[in-house]
């Protein structure tokens, strides 16, 4: 069953089709909706065709409407490449989208590319690149009074603070930004941000609050059909459960994340959940199980690199 918000998005595509450039623009929107719904394999196929189609399309309609067909396709394509474990190509496509958006001279397109194509660097926790992206979003958004994008930048800073061990600062920054974006009716990044906030609460040993927030985010995800975020939430819940002293429940949550991500075709989320579980297994003296869990992902990754893969490789020695 297709989730409700995805149905709405796909219906909108069909109704607005005459106003745009035809199949190419419809494919970009459909591809983006499919990947948010967790249908990443189908989304990747749609978006690869869209990138090829839109590369030769006129940008005149897009520039007038504030949406560039090729840039939109590149942003979504970069995300799907990362999700399917094609990390090197994802980075290259993301940087291409950001550079083209900068050269377009259109402030909204520039911010959109920085946020959506730039998400591959957030997922990869590539700190130096992230600082550059967030600084640029803030500079462009301030210059053009694009308030929602300023708050998205603040969310990124909050997640970075939590990753740096400054959980209290990060949680408060995320809380304030989510509230501001809710007032703007900009909810595209709410579930991902609240998931990061739950991790921060756990880092502060606020275990009940962290697990309660995980439950709230799961309700939001299932109600809105934002199923792409669910494996990440399940992994975060596993970490919260482990920190609260419930390793068996944590293991079940990690395994659920791996299974769901596998069904979605999301390799990156499988690796992240498997890494978290392997670390727990090694901590419990179950090294061989950890090695059996991680080895197929490392073989499948080949020469690809990411922080999670580097950590997994270090565990296997």
**N/C terminus separation:** 43 Å
Hey, roughly how much beta strand do the residues contain? under 5%
Characterize the overall form: globular
Q: Average pLDDT across residues?
A: 89
Radius of gyration: 19 Å
Which secondary-structure class do the elements indicate? Answer: mainly alpha
SSE order, as H and E?
HHHHHHHHHHHHHHHHHH
Helix content: over 70%
Low-confidence stretches: 6-23, 60-65
Write a brief structural summary.
By secondary structure, this protein is mainly α. It contains 18 helices and no strands. Helix 3 (40-54) runs antiparallel to helix 5 (69-83), helix 10 (147-163) packs antiparallel against helix 11 and helix 17 crosses helix 18.
Question: Strands, helices and their partners?
Answer:
Layout: H1 4-16, H2 23-36, H3 40-54, H4 60-65, H5 69-83, H6 87-104, H7 107-117, H8 119-123, H9 127-143, H10 147-163, H11 167-183, H12 190-203, H13 207-224, H14 230-243, H15 247-264, H16 267-283, H17 287-301, H18 307-316
Helix pairs in contact: 1-2, 2-3, 2-5, 3-5, 5-6, 5-7, 6-7, 7-9, 9-10, 10-11, 10-12, 11-12, 12-13, 12-14, 13-14, 14-15, 14-16, 15-16, 16-17, 16-18, 17-18
